[in-house]
């Protein structure tokens, strides 16, 4: 995953944050229409994962998403970041709806 290596050289996600490569960046299909219909879920590949605090003791543990997972999230959520002409998305863990098998 050379894109993951590029992301790690610039960005390190903090607690409860995931960096993904949105599917439209993977396929280079383009952008979706922003009409009046509700936003459909979008997909992306996890390139970097922060840690999360364990309940109660304040310690940290790994999140339930892993590097390389294909995740589904609500389009329009997160923060877009551009690194070397590639666009990535910073999502909070709770903005991820599902992990695809």
From TrEMBL:
Entry keywords, A to Z: Chaperone
Pfam families noted in UniProt: Cpn10 (PF00166)
SMART domains recorded: Cpn10
InterPro entries the record matches: Chaperonin_GroES (IPR020818), Chaperonin_GroES_sf (IPR037124), GroES-like_sf (IPR011032)
Gene Ontology MF, one: protein folding chaperone
Gene3D superfamilies documented for this protein: GroES chaperonin
Family named by the database record: Belongs to the GroES chaperonin family.
Protein name (Swiss-Prot/TrEMBL): 10 kDa chaperonin
